[in-house]
Amino acid sequence: MSEPSETNNEMIRFENVVKRFGSNTVLEDLNFTVAPGEFVTLIGPSGSGKTTILRLVMTLEKVSEGTIYVDGKPLSHMPKGGKLVPADEKYLREARKSIGMVFQQFNLFPNMNVLRNVTEGPIRSLGQSRDEAEKKAKDLLELVGLTDKIDARPTQLSGGQQQRVAIARALAMEPKVLLLDEVTSALDPELVTGVLHLLKDIANSTDITFLCVTHEMQFARDVSDRVMMFDGGQIVEDGHPEKIFTDPDHDRTREFLQAVLDRA
Amino acid sequence: MSKWDWERFWDAWPYVLDGLWVTIQFTLLGSIVAYILGLIFAIIRQLRIPVVDQVLWAFIEFVRSTPLLVQVFFLYWVIRPEVMQGIEADTQKIIVGTFALGVHYACYTSEVYRAGIEAVPRGQWEAATALSLPRRRVWTGVILPQAVPRVLPALGNYTIAMFKEVPLLSAISVFDIVYQVKTEYAASQGGAGPEAWAAAGLTFLALSYPCAILVRRLERRVGTV
Q1: Residue in B47, B131, B135, B143 to test binding to A, most A beta-carbons within 10 Å
Q2: Which residues, 6 or more positions from A126, have their beta carbon under 8 angstroms from its beta carbon?
Q3: Is A64 an 8 Å CB contact of chain B?
Q4: pLDDT class for A76, splitting at 50, 70, 90?
Q5: Among A7, A54, A153, A191, which residue has the least CB neighbours within 10 Å?
Q6: What's A3's DSSP letter?
Q7: How many CB atoms lie within 10 A of CB A96?
């Protein structure tokens, strides 16, 4: 893993974060930090709020209470006149530029070819020139092994290929934080390994901070600097992957890992 | 019924074709207004701006619940004298006719667009958000290019429906097919008669039916919403 590149040693900070959907509390007074360059994997049973955490960081959802900081700046609120007020669209759009997300269902734009999918963000939101963006996109598509699919439409690609394009698209924004939301869950089993391998390479060769939700425990163990076990919207256990996977402190973690193991 | 007279039938065609040209012009102008205004209505409603949303909803429901002929008369006899002083009489009719058709059908096309927009998966909005795309670009680059092709057949159907409703404008003396037959042709022949009405009907059929087939073919290609 890379060295922290920022002067502050927190890339992500959750401060007393509460998230409710109606009367259902999904996250309960959540506090944690992620260091720059760290690869953190969230594990836990479905409905434990893992994906909600990623969606909050991407600002696809709003916190009910508390504050999330990314790279030292509050996400849901903006400083104004010495106070924090709810962020407006412009502030959010700026804040999102340092955050990327890869989705379970890929969510490529079907009306654009592969190259346009990758250049759309850099051109329209970072203001890069078309030439510059296309040059970088071609490098990224080479990295993900899809140089020959540059002109293809997403619908002409396999799930694994679509997810590789989605990864290239997220990387093209040069994010400081990359969120991986069950990125192999929708893939055919034989395509999973390739995508995980690619992600591992990227994690090892960049200083991007990763927040990852996955059910691939071997991958989590191989690539993570830290694993957080969630249940009922709270952190049950937080530690080094070897420790969590081989000698967890909590029965709840052991039960969960056993259940996952049995399923596999 | 009077006896069928082929000569009267052939004599009707110059009038019908003159009227057809006017009818087509109103259909095209009205469709342009309906397509653009309907899209604007749909986007405004999707933005869910308080008050604006409710006012627009009420307007759309009002227009959809009242006859087009009433709207034509209202625009022509109530609004026109107030706002169109000094404009040539023919131009006034073109403006009133275009807007009556356009606004009326915009209230239908807006619902079509809305269905098309809502059929775009939520993940597309989220991917656009994750890329920090400007709001305008999300609409023009991601949402509308996916929503609009799917609604084209439905829009086409409304244009065909509009084509058949242009005769309502004969009530404000627009020189469409019906006005031509009822007034101009009738004056030259001492009454319209079955031959001219048959010619008028055949003309509508000759255009509507092939267009409907084209729309159905388009539907099969792009799928329906």
Answers
A1: B131
A2: A97, A173, A174, B132
A3: no
A4: confident
A5: A7
A6: P
A7: 24
Treating both helix axes as pointing N-terminal to C-terminal, what angle do A114-124 and A159-172 enclose, rounded to 10 degrees? Answer: 20
Residues in chain A within 8 Å Cβ distance of B141: 109, 112, 120, 124
Provide residues of B within 8 Å CB-CB of chain A: 121, 123-124, 126-135, 137, 141-142, 145-146
Instruction: Give residues with Cβ within 8 angstroms of A144, minimum separation 6.
Output: A164, A165, A167, A168, A198
Q: How far apart are CA A26 and CA A139, in angstroms?
A: 40
The pLDDT, as a whole number, for residue A8 is: 64
Cβ of A93 within 8 Å of Cβ of B145? The answer is: no
CB–CB contact B130 A170 (8 Å): yes
Return the SS3 of B7.
helix
Q: Which of A59, A97, A107 sits opposite B127 (nearest CB)?
A: A107
Look at residue A97 and tell me whether its pLDDT is greater than 90: yes
- Residue pLDDT, tens place only, B156-214: 999 999 999 999 999 999 999 999 999 999 998 888 889 999 999 999 999 999 999 99
List A42's β-bridge partners, or say none.
A213, A228
Highest mean pLDDT among A47-51, B78-82, B187-191: B78-82
User: Can you read off the two tokens belonging to residue A228?
Assistant: 């957080």
Residues A98-127 have a mean pLDDT of 96
Closest CA to A138 of A148, A128, A124: A148
Residue A142 token pair: 């080479």
> What value of ipTM does the predicted structure carry?
0.91
**Pairing mode, strands A24-34 and A39-43:** unpaired
Label residue B1 by pLDDT band (50, 70, 90).
Answer: low
Q: Which helix or strand (DSSP H or E) is residue A92 part of?
A: helix A89-96
Dihedral over Cα of A7, A14, A203, B133: its sign: negative
Hey, how many other C-beta atoms are within 10 angstroms of the C-beta on A254?
A: 15
pLDDT at residue A6 in the model: 44
Residues B46 and B29: their CA atoms lie apart, in Å, by: 26
Give the pTM: 0.87
**Position A227, amino acid:** V
Question: Mean pLDDT for chain B?
Answer: 94
Reported as a single tens digit per residue, the pLDDT across B9-27 is 999 999 999 999 999 999 9
Output phi, psi for A59, to 5 deg.
Answer: 65, 25
Is the Cα torsion angle B73, B77, B81, B82 positive or negative in sign?
Answer: negative
